[in-house]
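Hi all, long-time lurker, first post. I run a small reading group and we've been trying to get comfortable going from sequence to structure in the token notation. Rather than ask abstract questions, I figured I'd post a concrete chain and ask someone more experienced to write out its structure so we can walk through it together at our next meeting. Sequence below, copied exactly:
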Amino acid sequence: MTEVRAKKALGQHFLTDLNIARKICDSLSGGTSSAPCPVLEVGCGMGVLTQFLLRRDDVVTWGAEIDSESVAYLHAHYPEFAPRLIEGDFLRMNLRERFPEGLRIIGNFPYNISSQIFFKVLENRDLVPECVGMIQKEVAVRLAEPPGSKEYGILSVLLQAWYDIEYLFTVNETVFNPPPKVKSAVIRLRRNATERLGCDEPLFVKVVKASFGQRRKMIRNSLKSVFGDFGGAEHPFFTQRAEQLSVADFVELTNWVAAHRQ
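-- Answer (accepted) --
Happy to help. Here is the structure in token form:
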């Protein structure tokens, strides 16, 4: 098999620039050569990133690949990798079962599921200390933006509650086959020191989602449409818009909602 055909339905755009693949690989921290840590590459394609990961002696590289044609290609070209290549949908994998001691995640993520990949990282935040991913540039900007930016949104707040996020570098369309219509970017998430948010965490998620539910409206209106009118009580944040609030502000607002909802 000489090459894998890119499938639109899987959001496949194969990276062809080896220097960028090496740079992505080098952006991930590892363990030591005596105690290598597991790394799961999501969407291995034709192994352009995989080959650099396999050269590192401080990581044990695993792969998750949903495309059977790519799996066959990888088996043929990287036979030493085959026992650790899992054919299947990363979004359905039980990471806790497969990697009970934890794992790092890396990949040129398919654009159409990049947000879902990050939600899965969040669900497994006690297992995933670090994630390096190439995604659509505008999504990368959104995730890394601080409060006050119009790009700052639901996933920005939820990820920034648990991870420090760095926008590492931009990648042009020309280094992919087929080239996407948009620029890409590589970001790195590293688990921060937060163990508990200091509020009801499921309610925190609900408050964040409700606040951004009507982006152009003040928080008062966004929250009322989900939680009711709080018996007429008002919070100082009610006259602000969701993108103005930091993670700490949303924690405070969540505690207020918990105390005042009917």
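A couple of things your group might point at:
Residues 23 and 49 are 9 Å apart (CA to CA).
The domain at 201-260 is CATH 1.10.8.100 (Helicase, Ruva Protein; domain 3).
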